[in-house]
């Protein structure tokens, strides 16, 4: 249709106004502010407000923001999975329904009003916007992630993009674990197989500087010296639900040790293999306060053993001050560890680190009072003796011009450090 120029000139302002009104109505209002309430010196975030349309599960919900519907994944937590998402008759893994119901309860108490926060507006998880979610209760914003973690209804799942919440969230997870609430109650799902059987779990999350999964492993020790523990059907996983299921017939002997290697290998009575071509357990990133966890679930959904790292709260070690490091960085280089205390020290659960390289002590390594153990940075056939060990490196890793070596727990608490040349032990105090 042809329109006369004079008519077009009269219509143009109206068209512009119409466009502005339409654009304004469809735009998503966004402000900026501190990512975490009260942390004015911390990172800043983009902030939106919206109305919840419905809750999917304990960590996912649909939110109307402006004229748009967002599928939102709550930052920093991971609840157990539902199998039936209908809010009238939810069903799923142990603790999953409780988490979804609690999130629903918080949203309804706030009459659906929520605040969404993100460090990176593009942050997403499988197409869902990754956001910190808060509800308005009593005139104040309340972080739903903090509530679910504190009540033991979710695991801490750190994120390196949305990292502002990591420090507080990890502390809440540790406190809930110490109190054995929710998912941290090892018999919350009912009396399970071998209920109360004592276990210890460690995870070697740093793959010795290679980026290969072969250096990653999780180790289980049966603390019961009399009774074996059948593990068939149990599951080992990280915070992101990457999971290894123990084969039928797997048994952990009384007082025994079983290691699950992330990479490939040939199974035997003491070693199982996940068979993956990439690492599973995330490394500690102190700049973003990030880490991960290893979790052992029995077939009915009870969390029976775990290790969350890095440690934030109760990080002391009974052998702090009892182990002394020495280093010879040139020639046939080695690191020495000496027991300066009055009693034998089992070295299981400790590791040496130098840069990206890691050596984990074997499960049977013990130092008597006054004894020293040498770990050479190259491995030869004669370096597999009680007090002489070899690192897995083909070439030396200790720089002549300087560096440091640290003795720490697998939760990244440092017990001792030695530096030479331009190296430093700054920041290596026990956390």
TrEMBL record:
Q: Does the keyword Signal apply?
A: yes
A Pfam family for this UniProt protein? LTD
The UniProt keyword set, sorted, is:
Signal
Which SMART domains does the record match to this protein?
SNc (SM00318)
Q: Which residues form the LTD domain?
A: 185-311
Matches recorded under PROSITE patterns: LTD, TNASE_3
Q: Is the keyword Signal in the record?
A: yes
Question: What protein does this entry describe?
Answer: Uncharacterized protein
